[in-house]
Design a protein that fits this description.
Layout lengths: L26 E10 L5 E7 L4 H10 L6 E2 L7 E8 L14 E5 L4 E5 L2 H15 L5 E9 L5 E7 L8 H13 L4 E6 L9 H4 L7 H13 L3 E6 L6 H4 L14 E2 L5 E2 L10 H14 L7 E3 L14 H7 L1 H18 L3 E5 L7 H4 L7 E5 L7 H10 L5 E3 L12 H18 L3 E6 L10 H15 L1 H4 L4 H10 L5 H9 L15 H5 L15 H20 L7 H24 L7 H28 L5 H9 L1 H4 L9 H23 L6
Parallel strand pairs: 2-3, 2-4, 4-6, 8-9, 8-17, 9-10, 13-14, 14-15, 15-16, 16-17
Antiparallel strand pairs: 1-7, 5-6, 5-7, 11-12
Helix pairs in contact: 1-2, 3-5, 7-9, 8-9, 11-12, 12-13, 13-15, 15-16, 16-18, 16-19, 18-19, 19-20, 20-21, 20-23
């Protein structure tokens, strides 16, 4: 159901397409009669109850899209639009302030809501109805409210993409049209902290002025911009510098929970008072630029904890207790500044007894990114204690190049079911950028949309046609083929028959040395052939698509670049089945080298279209690591090879230099 294009609906009376409204409404009841829309129709606005006309007018201007004009006086073309303040009796208490009711009759439209947030969402729905193309609107009664009070998106802007302000503005408007009401920008080192220039100088960070501008835009759209600064783990961008290295928990090789050995320190020493002093000073600089009084302090995945400087304390008290004591110090710093703390709950889930000791004002963020993640189990204890908590699934875009479509859908459904069952306050869709953030933004659109839909009402949105919705709301593609192609690209890896946790097999195949047969993962020639066949079908879909969005050429370029990377990964896997001494193997190596150079050049060309220059060099380094393993000593670089290398390297250097010289630029 998620990949089908919908047939056009008739514009005749009573045939408006309610499925075009995403998120789908909770209750829709057709009524007798039809509201006829005159040519150049408009509204005459009436405020009723406690609503003030000036507030209603302001909301009309803020709602994404274009509602018909508002007539100040009487007009034959004016349809009465009544905005009435009143409670919606059916709505549950926890989301009653966001509930609304729309009553369409033959002569007027009335929107009822308890307060302005509900009125806003009613106007969003009305706008969708009026934009559906119908000239005659069937009389109906719509009653609607969300499952979750908070419905948000978290964007990773630390690995390695920092979006331009234009990209962020576009996303905020899109999120508002899907009735989302929270946005977080995940930061490790990408805020321009005074006194810490060494850490962010090559990252094109968010400046205080840009945060304030984005915060104001979010407020305009009914979205809370919540600061997010990791405060324990994932601090490698800080600890790699001599000034901060003494704060590392461990500076030698350490084991991750899944047995991988790493060498670069990522975690602050939780028993060193200087760690708290550092992060609290960051809060002092960051928080004044946000209107929200919440703060996500992160504190997830402190891999080295208990293996280095806190080893003795961890043996004596337990690593869980050392973590908890540090978290409580962070909590004191947050509350002392008048804010409420959010934190990732993965580490404290290991010791459920410590959850019982949490202050009642904290908000645990229960996260998991697989289709079968045990959200039920992890939600049960905070729910039993009466804590507010969020469920946090993911777009499955990262470590994939093209996403993992099927996994994303099931992961989000699972989170919505568990969150609703256990009374989660929020549903936060996360979008990460591990290993260079090499997936392009459109890969994440499906997850953004589906997360918004199931967090509004899981029952009416769990089986929505994602391709049709993306085609209407994002790509403006009447054929629906562009959205179908993006979704299909996220399923190519499934044809391998091998599903891996938190990544696709095609992504994994490009993480190791080409000559290492372990990177083959048991993928057979037949499986490679199946994947290549799928890729060919996606190319044909892309050629047949007719998007009319204002960034249509860019979206198509991003799709073709993604297809090229998937195809290259398949060719790498195919090389492993060739006898290494054969002429075919040598030809394949040369072709792979040329192909990777083209991928690098395209990556450099597309990056600045949506993102700031900082981070691009780090991102491309992941592709550059593929070059030594696929270059032959006997292969002399052609003029084309040298040109591609020069192009990609100079593009990165030019963009980063420009970033350093142009700090006042509105990215």
């Amino acid at each position: 159901m998620t990949g089908k294009a919908q047939s056009p609906k008739s514009k005749s009376a009573g045939r408006q397409d309610m499925s075009a409204i995403v998120p789908h409404v909770r209750h829709y009841q057709p009524q007798p009669g039809v509201l006829v829309l005159p040519k150049n129709a408009g509204f005459s606005l009436r405020a009723s109850g406690g609503f003030k006309k000036v507030d209603c007018n302001r909301l009309l201007r803020q709602v994404p899209g274009t509602l018909p004009q508002i007539f100040s006086g009487r007009s034959a073309r004016a349809i009465p639009l009544i905005m009435r303040e009143s409670a919606i009796p059916q709505a549950p208490k926890r989301t009653a302030d966001q509930a609304y009711e729309i009553y369409i009759t033959k002569k007027s439209i009335e929107i009822t809501a308890q307060n302005l947030p509900g009125l806003r969402y009613g106007l969003v729905t009305l706008n969708r109805i009026l934009r559906s193309g119908a000239t005659n609107i069937r009389a109906a009664k719509i009653t609607d409210w969300p499952d979750f009070p908070v419905r948000g998106i978290l964007l990773d802007i630390s690995r390695d993409k920092v979006p331009t302000m234009a990209t962020l503005r576009r996303l905020v408007a899109l999120f508002a049209s899907w009735k989302l009401n929270q946005l977080q920008l995940y930061m490790e080192h990408t805020f321009a902290y005074t006194g810490h220039e060494t850490v962010w100088k090559n990252a094109s960070p968010m400046t205080p002025a840009q945060i304030r501008a984005l915060d104001a835009l979010c407020q305009l759209h009914g979205i809370a911009l919540v600061p997010s600064q990791n405060s324990l783990g994932h601090m490698e961008r800080w600890l790699q510098h001599p000034k901060y290295a003494p704060l590392a928990e461990y500076d030698g090789p350490y084991k991750t929970p899944w047995g991988e050995t790493r060498t670069k320190p990522t975690t602050l020493n939780p028993i060193d008072p200087r760690s708290i002093k550092l992060v609290s000073s960051l809060y002092d600089q960051l928080l004044p630029h946000f209107s929200s009084k919440q703060l996500n302090v992160g504190c997830d995945e402190p891999f080295e904890l208990g293996q280095g400087k806190s080893r003795h304390a961890s043996k004596k008290q337990g690593a869980g207790r050392v973590y908890f004591d540090y978290l409580m110090k962070i909590h004191r710093e947050v509350t002392r500044r008048g804010h409420r703390m959010q934190f990732w709950s993965d580490w404290i889930q290991r010791d459920p007894e410590l959850i019982d000791k949490l202050p009642r004002d904290v908000i645990p963020l229960v996260w998991g990114y697989e289709a079968d993640h045990q959200f039920d189990e992890e939600c049960r204890r905070p729910a039993k204690l009466g804590l507010e908590f969020y469920v946090c699934p993911g777009t499955s875009s990262w470590c994939s190049f093209a996403g993992r479509t099927s996994n994303m859908i099931e992961n989000m459904r699972c989170a919505a079911r568990a969150g609703t069952r256990h009374g989660a306050t929020g549903y936060l869709t996360t979008d990460w950028g591990d290993f260079g953030h090499r997936q392009h933004l459109p890969v994440s659109y499906a997850g953004f949309l589906f997360g918004a839909a199931v967090s509004w009402c899981g029952k009416s949105n769990r089986d929505i046609d994602i391709a049709a919705a993306l085609s209407r709301d994002v790509f403006k593609d009447a054929t629906s083929r562009l959205a179908q192609a993006w979704l299909a690209a996220g399923r190519v890896h499934e044809a391998s028959g091998i599903l891996q946790k938190n990544r696709s097999v095609l992504f994994a195949s490009m993480q190791g040395e080409l000559g290492n047969d372990a990177t083959r993962f048991g993928v057979t020639r037949r499986a490679i052939s199946r994947m290549m066949k799928e890729i060919g079908a996606i190319r044909r879909l892309a050629r047949a698509a007719k998007p009319k969005c204002d960034d249509a050429p860019l979206v198509l370029d991003e799709l073709l670049a993604t297809i090229d990377v998937l195809e290259h990964a398949c060719r790498r896997l195919a090389y492993l089945s060739i006898r290494r001494s054969s002429k075919q193997a040598k030809r394949s190596l040369i072709e792979l080298a040329d192909g990777m150079q083209q991928i690098i050049a395209m990556h450099a060309r597309l990056w600045p279209q949506r993102n700031r220059p900082g981070g691009m060099r780090d991102s491309m380094s992941h592709y550059h690591r593929n070059l030594p393993s696929i270059s032959l000593p006997s292969h002399k670089p052609t003029h084309h090879d040298q040109q591609q290398r020069s192009c990609s390297a100079s593009a990165a250097g030019t963009l980063i230099a420009h970033s350093n010289q142009s700090k006042k630029r509105d990215y």
